[in-house]
Each structure stands twice: as structure tokens, then as C-alpha cells.
Amino acid sequence: MKKAEPNPKANRNIMKLVYGVIILFLGMMVYMGYFLQIKREDVINNSYNPRLDSFAERVTRGEILASDGTVLAQTQLDGEGNEVRVYPYGNLYDHVVGYSARGKTGVEALANFYLLSSHVNLVEQAANLAAGEKNPGDCVYTTLDHELQQAASSALGDRRGAVIAMEPDTGKILAMVSKPGYDPNTVEADWESLASPENTQGQLLNRVTQGLYPPGSTFKIVTALEYMRERPQDYKDYHFDCDGVYENGEYQIRCYHSTAHGSQDFVRAFANSCNGAFANLGLNLELSGFAATAEDLLFNSSLPLSGLPYSKSSFVMKEGADTWEILQTSMGQGATQITPIHNAMITAAIANGGTLMKPYLLDRVENGAGEEIKKFLPEAYGELMTAGEAAGLTELMEAVVTEGTGSAVRTDAYSAAAKTGSAEFETGKETHAWFTGFAPAQDPKLVVTVIVEEAGSGGAVAGPIARTLFDLYMSRG
After folding, report:
1. What is the pLDDT of residues 101-133, one digit of tens each?
2. Which of 415, 441, 435 is nearest to 353 (CA)?
3. What is the 3 state secondary structure string of 267-286?
4. ∠75-79-84 over CA atoms, to 5°?
5. Is 366 contained in some domain?
6. Distance between CA atoms of 95 and 340, rounded to whole angstroms?
7. 376, 306 in Cβ contact below 8 A?
8. Packing angle of the helix pair 220-230, 340-351 (nearest 10 deg)
9. Are 113 and 365 in contact (CB under 8 A)?
């Protein structure tokens, strides 16, 4: 019998199949490693994952604490032996810590996986199992500063609005206040009224991350940056004579209370928040570049806020926009909208030399014995602007404090850089009051952003709230 000759083509096909199987296997191994190391917690922490219920059957939900160890949420037993989630400070931390009834929000949702995990030693686990008792869940320490949170809440008082404070060089969120709020201890009992379509107060809305507002004059940071980018060598040569009302054809733009600022250069126009100057300046900008700069600063984009629900800020002006839209947009009105946390992130990037650090709320996880299980570290998002551009904007924002609308934070104790704003949103209603800034100006340690709804002047109303936080923080040395 004649011996069969090897078939080179068949051999090649077999080898291709073998290599394909090997590549597929390696790909599955890589994905499994990626899942176990990176995505596992996200999947387990998903509110739709029924495995979480089984965690709660054998683990008592752990405590949530401020950075100094102040207990913000804990699980206790009621008179009948049932577990009850207790929030010792009531509505002081309502939105940021959240609740664990009717779903989970805030840190309760963000840290759900860790709070329902237990890393007590094996001896204690065995003893609890034998006794039919649950293991204590791990404790989560947040980045929240208890004193700053109290100060922010007290300074905002009963007014509607939001306050956020964060470290620009790390991204640590130190305070987050949104009002009106609710008592997380009674959210189950109050749910019907809180969630009623007839309720127009929005107590469940976290205005820091979800509230969308016209930025008003705080948007002049964006307009100024675009002008600086288009005229890097001579932007300070800009000049405008303000008589309180800027007219362009059939359109009129009024400065706040029709104040006549007189002769204004670029720095003074920014410091005095001259609407006429910035409306005029906007007409000389390249609209495609303007839109690109806004998007560089994360308008119309996702924000690096993993685990926190938020609204996207919007910048809609494109090439071909008419004169009125350009005039309005250039000074932060029109269709432009922003969240307080986004405004704080832009400010933090300026304070940090152009680089945005990802905001974060979780500092570390500890077991019941106080042993560290996990540490969360600062992480850079990326460069929103160059260091030179950040330095130029800092100079403008310093002038706001030393000679302009930000005088409320002017003090000999420390320097500050800021931008105020008074945002129109509905005819016949008072403007929203904005403030965003950082201190010290040349060595930034703290960023504070404030909005007070329907409160009037940003410098007069929001500025003093920010001053309270700056004073407290800087007093620590």
C-alpha cells in the first residue's frame, strides 16, 4: 500500500486552529485576572446583584466614619433585636453619606461591598458561626472633614443651594452639603412625601453633583481661557470702556445693577466681572475653539466621579451661532449649564497647575480590630490646561479678591483666588449666587465652591460662606 503523503495545507489549518484555541484561552485568563483584580468589586457592588443579599445574611453592615473617626452611620439593634441603620448626625450628611433604605445612595452605595465584607480573624469567625451570630462588617473611613462639614452646613443655613470643599492636589472631598435635605433616619417613613410628584423641594436631589445651573460669571473663567489661547502674547492688552450697558445692534447687555466700570483692561474686566467687556470679547472669539476649550474642561463629557450619580454640564454653542447666543454664552448665560462639583473641578485644576485629580470620598477600609484592609490613593485624571494657562487664570482670580467682586474672602491671614457669579435663570426672579475659589492663592490647599439659589450677588452671599470654610481650614496651620 502506498504511504499517504503529508498535506501541508491541512497541517497549516490544524496549527491555525491550535493557535486560535491557545489565544482564546490566554484571552480568557487575562480577562479573568482583570475581572478579579479590577471589576470584581464593581460587579458585586451592583444593586442588581442578588449576591449582596447573601452578604447581609451573615455580616452586620459596617460603620461609616469621617476622617477623624466620627461615626456617621452604624448598625444597631432595636428593642426587638432587629438591625436598624442609624445616622447620628441626621441630615448633616444626608446626601453625601446617603441612606440604605429604599435602595442605597451616597457612601452607603459607593462602599456597599466593603461594608458587607468582614475581615475579622478566623477564630472570631468560627466563634460567631458556632453562636449563630453575624460577623461585624468592615468600617469605611471617608475623606470627609467633620468640622468643615458642620461649618459648611451652618454657613448655608436654611437656604437652598450647595457647598463643596476639596483638596486640589489630591482630589479628596472634605465637605459636601446640599439643601434642602432629609433625615436618613426616617427616610423610610418619609418616603411617600419625599418622592411625591407634587413635592417641588427636591430634598432627595444632591445639588452638588446633580443640580444643573447657569454658571453666570463663573463661566468667564472659560471665556478668559479661550481668549488667552487665541492671543497668548497680547491678551492683557484688551481694553473696554464700560458705561454699565453694552449695546450691539438691537441687543443690550447690562452689567450687574448696571454698574459702570469705566476703563477696563483684561485683568480688571475679569476682576470686576464686567458683562459688557466679556460679551464684547466673546464676539471676537473663534466659536469652534471656544467649544473645544469648553470640552477640554469637561463640558458635554463624563466626569471622573466613579460611583457617584451626577448630571453632565452642557455647552451647546457651535459655529454659526447668532449674536445674541454669543453675547449670552460668553458671560455664562444662555443654554450653558454646570453642576457645582464640575465648577469645583475646573477650579481645582487651575489650583493644581492645570492637572485635575479625580475627586474621591473613600479613604480606607479597616476591619473590626482596626487593621487596614484597603487604602484609596489620589489619582490624576489628566491635564485640562497647561501650567502656564493655569498660572494666568490664577492671576486673574487673585485680582477678583484683591480688587474686585471677591472682597468677601480678602484677608491678611492668607491669600485667595476666586470668581464670583450672579446667574439669571428666570425673568422676575432673583439670581443664583455663585462663588468658586481656592486658598492660599500661590500654594493652594483648599478649593471651595458655593451656590445659593435665588440669593442675588455671588460676592455678597456665596463669598462669605466660602470665607467661613477658608478661615477654619487655614486656622489649623
Report:
1. 888 999 999 999 999 998 887 777 777 777 777
2. 441
3. HHHHHCCCHHHHHHHHCCCC
4. 25
5. no
6. 14
7. no
8. 40
9. no
Average pLDDT score over the chain: 91
- Amino acid 292 reads A
* Lookup: cell for 406: 471677591
- Which residue segment(s) compose the domain that 342 sits in? 210-359+383-474
- Is 354 inside a domain boundary? yes
Report the pLDDT value the prediction gives residue 162, as an integer from 0 to 100. Answer: 98
Query: Of the candidates 197, 183, 186, 171, which has an alpha carbon nearest to the alpha carbon of residue 308?
Result: 171
The reply to whether 177 falls in a domain is: no
pTM of the model: 0.89
pLDDT of residue 125: 75
Angle among Cα 215, 218, 220 to the nearest 5 degrees reads: 110
The pLDDT, as a whole number, for residue 465 is 98
Burial 11-38 (b: 16+ CB within 10 A, else e): eeeeeeeeeeeeeeeeeeeeeeeeeeee
Interacting residues of 130 by C-beta distance below 8 A, sequence separation 6+: none
Summarize pLDDT for 245-299 with one digit per residue, the tens.
999 999 999 998 889 999 999 999 999 999 999 999 999 999 999 999 999 999 9
pLDDT of residue 431: 93
Rounded to an integer, what distance in angstroms lies between the CA atom of residue 162 and that of residue 153? 9
**Of 213, 210, 141, which Cα lies nearest the Cα of 176?**
210
| Cα gap 446→441, rounded to integer Å | 10
- Structural domain tally of the chain? 1
Neighbours of 224 (CB within 10 A): 24
Axis crossing angle, helix 146-156 with helix 463-474, rounded to the nearest 10:
160
Tell me, yes or no, whether 316 lies in a domain: yes
Please give the Cα distance from 274 to 267 (Å, whole number).
10
What pLDDT sits at residue 322? 95
Task: Summarize the confidence of residues 94-103 as an average pLDDT.
Answer: 94
Kindly give the pairing relationship between strand 64-65 and strand 139-142: parallel
Alpha helices in 297-339 (DSSP H): 323-330
Residues in the chain: 477
| Nine-digit cell string for 387 | 501650567
The grid cell for 163 is 457647598
Where do runs of H (alpha helix) occur along 211-256?
Answer: 220-230
Q: Establish how many alpha carbons lie within 13 A of residue 314's alpha carbon, considering only the half-sphere containing its beta carbon.
A: 13
What lies within 8 Å, CB to CB, of 287 at 6+ separation is 317, 318, 319, 320, 321, 326
CATH number at residue 273: 3.40.710.10
Report residue 370 CA to chain centroid gap: 30
Chain-centroid distance of CA 205 in Å reads: 14
